[in-house]
Design goal:
34% of the residues lie in helices and 21% in strands. It has 319 residues and is an alpha/beta fold. It has two domains: 193 residues, 3-Layer(aba) Sandwich (Rossmann fold); 62 residues, no CATH class. The strands form two sheets. The protein has a seven-stranded mixed beta sheet with strand order 6-5-4-7-8-11-10, with helices on both faces. The protein has a four-stranded antiparallel beta sheet with strand order 1-2-3-9, with no helix packed on it. Helix 2 crosses helix 3 and helix 7 packs across helix 11. The protein is globular and about 65 Å long.
Length: 319
Amino acid sequence: MEAIACNLCGSLDLKFLYRMPDTFFLKEEWFNVVECQGCGLGFVNPRPTFEEIGRFYPPAYYQWFQTEQKFNDRRYEIEAGYVHRYVKASPAHVLLDVGCANGDFPRAMQRFGWNVEGVEISNNSTAIDDFLLYRQTFPEIPVNAPRYDVVTAWAVLEHVHDPGAYFKKAAKVLRPGGFFVFNVPNFGSISSRHLYREDVPRHLYFFTEGNVRRYLSANGMELIEAFFDDRVYSMLAYNWLHYYLRFKRRGRDFTYEDSLFCRDRYLKENGLSPTLFNSIRFFAANTHIPVDRLLRRAFEKYQMRKGTYGQSTYIARKV
């Protein structure tokens, strides 16, 4: 584990926000999330080192891309749509997909007519031999001149140890007027900031639109469009009303254990069996819970309109 300064502004003035475990694989390991008081960037601190982080990415992490193939095929079409808003598919156009996992998105872009390349460092992803693949981290690939018309990074920048180096490299390898298209969680959302919906410690950094603009501007790129929705990935606002009514309104801390509140947990903690009577007893004591569940989707739609949803997709252009 290593303690770090802010990647964006270098500040050591950090505010502790919350503590949570790895909710998927190594559930016994807990991590702190902090916020930089200088620029508002969120990140895990202390964090696993680059050499340690691989154990949090077992083969099961990459198998999801295969088991959810129908969903993923639809997602690749949506991701392609963001690219095609500005650049038409052509064999003359070169696209680099950073963090391409098993290579499915570049293959989808090949079918649209693109010349594609990829970057993937994990040895747990499947073998790729049908397009040029770099096995180094993106900042270390042996390309140091403008080569690509588009660089994409779908849910990648939150995973890396030095996002600033990724923005810098994207600017270096993009042709003038080229586009950097990427998706990251939105730290300006209740889900990311308060409801413990981040995939810690695989997610190491948490970005707001303001953070993104600063990274882009520092590297000669400008933000063209920002989207806050669940078209690429979702981040459910689970227990949003429970948080507002029972904790925020009363000025109480909302812990990770509080975020797990539900009927089954209530029954277990009170030594009650899952009978109809005890379920009625739970809802009588927590009348806001049915409302929380019924209105969650409407609340998420409201977030999307206000730009406060838990996921964000950005399209930037090299100036």
